[in-house]
Amino acid sequence: MASGSGHGQRLRQLDLSRNNLLGDSGVGLLSTGLEHPNCRLEKLELMGCNLTEKSCAALSSALSSNSSSLRQLDLRDNNLGDSGVDLLSTGLEHPNCRLEKLQLQYCNLTVKSCSSLALALRSNPSSLRVLDLKLNKLQQSDVKLLSALQKDPKYKLTELQYR
Questions:
Q1: What is the pLDDT of residue 1?
Q2: Is the four-CA dihedral 19, 25, 26, 30 of positive or negative sign?
Q3: How many Å apart are CA 41 and CA 33, to the nearest integer?
Q4: Of 127, 110, 122, nearest to 146 (Cα)?
Q5: pTM of the model as a whole
Q6: CA distance 47 to 105
C-alpha cells in the first residue's frame, strides 16, 4: 500500500460518545491526529466522555491548525464549564477554524461562556453557523451577545439554541 493511502484519509466521521475510558488524555492524543495534514475528519462526537477543560485546550489547538477539516463538534454532556469554553473559544477565533456546528448542551455553562463564544465569533465571523447551548440553565439575557451576532448579516450564525 502506498504511503498516505491508508483508511485514515477516508474517515470523515468519528463517534466516541459514552466512552468513559477516553477522558482528557485520550482527547489530547486524538487532537494531535486532527492536526495532521492527512486527517480529513469532519465530524467528531465526544458526548458523555467525562471530559474537562483539559480536552478543550487540546481541541482548541486542533481547531486552529491550518490542516483542520473539522466542521462539526459534539461535546454534549461533559464537565467543560466556563473555563473549558474559554479555552475552546481561542481555537474558534482563529482564522484557520472551519467549524460550522458546535454542540455544548449540558456542559455546566453560564453567561461567561456566552461572552467567550461571542468574542470568538466576532474575531472569526466566517465560520460557525449552529451553536447549541441547551440544558445549561441560560436565560435570554445571558445569550444577548450571541443573539445580536445571529441577527447581524455579516456573521454566519443562523441557529442559536439555549433552552
A1: 32
A2: positive
A3: 10
A4: 122
A5: 0.92
A6: 9
Cell readout for 98 is: 472551519
Residues with Cβ within 8 Å of 1's Cβ and at least 6 positions away in sequence, in order, are none
pLDDT-derived band at 101, boundaries 50, 70, 90: very high
Q: Within 13 Å, how many C-alpha atoms sit on residue 9's CB side? A: 7
What would the 3-class secondary structure string for 118-161 be?
HHHHHHCCCCCCEEECCCCCCCCCCCHHHHHHHHCCCCCCCEEE
pLDDT digits 0-9 by tens, 17-46: 999 899 999 999 999 999 999 999 999 999
Tell me how many degrees the CA angle 158-134-139 measures, rounded to the nearest 5. 90
In order, the DSSP letters of 83-118 are HHHHHHHHHHTSTT----EEE-TTS---HHHHHHHH
Task: Name the CATH superfamily for 10-161.
Answer: Ribonuclease Inhibitor (3.80.10.10)
Looking at residue 74, what DSSP letter applies?
Answer: E
Cα distance between residue 58 and residue 30, in whole Å: 9
**CA 86/CA 100 separation, integer angstroms:** 18
